[in-house]
Amino acid sequence: QLQLVESGGGLVQPGGSLRLSCAASGFTLDYYAIGWFRQAPGKEREGVSCISSSGGFTKYADSVKGRFTISRDNAKNTVYLQMNSLKPEDTAVYYCAAALHFYCSVYFPSKSNGVRYWGQGTQVTVSS
């Protein structure tokens, strides 16, 4: 069974940090670009960050630049999203998606073009 599983979400105070993980089972992430998306209540799902299959190319939404860092460890079949200086407006369900290897440079932040698999999401709540 092909699956992406996100973990690492939780409740954190403003200014705090969290590291999200996106782990694959049933397939290898080596040949996939990975995108992180988020969806807040009543809002559309939006692209947060993307990393190419090799890890050599990354992209960030303006709202998270300088605060979030995406990385991958293909040996562990896992992609990470390090989130620092969290703000209440970062509160959302965070999803990872596996996409075609050229997705980041061509399609991100599209939620459909080039996207092949979605995870089930992990809740991040930033509140005092």
Radius of gyration over all CA atoms, rounded: 13 Å
Shape: globular
Portion in strands: over 45%
Tell me the series of helices and strands, N- to C-terminal: EEEEEEEEEHEE
Distance from first to last alpha carbon: 39 Å
Describe this structure in words.
There is one protein chain. With 128 residues, the chain is mainly beta. It has one helix and eleven strands, in the order βββββββββαββ. It has one helix at 103-106, and strands spanning 3-7, 10-12, 18-25, 33-39, 46-51, 58-60, 68-73, 78-83, 92-99, 115-118, 122-126. Strands 2, 4, 5, 6, 9, 10 and 11 form a seven-stranded mixed beta sheet that branches. A four-stranded antiparallel beta sheet has the order 1-3-8-7, with no helix packed on it. The mean pLDDT is 96.
Describe the structure in brief:
With about 130 residues, the protein is mostly beta strands. The protein has one helix at about 105, and strands at about 5, 10, 20-25, 35-40, 45-50, 60, 70-75, 80-85, 90-100, 115-120, 120-125.
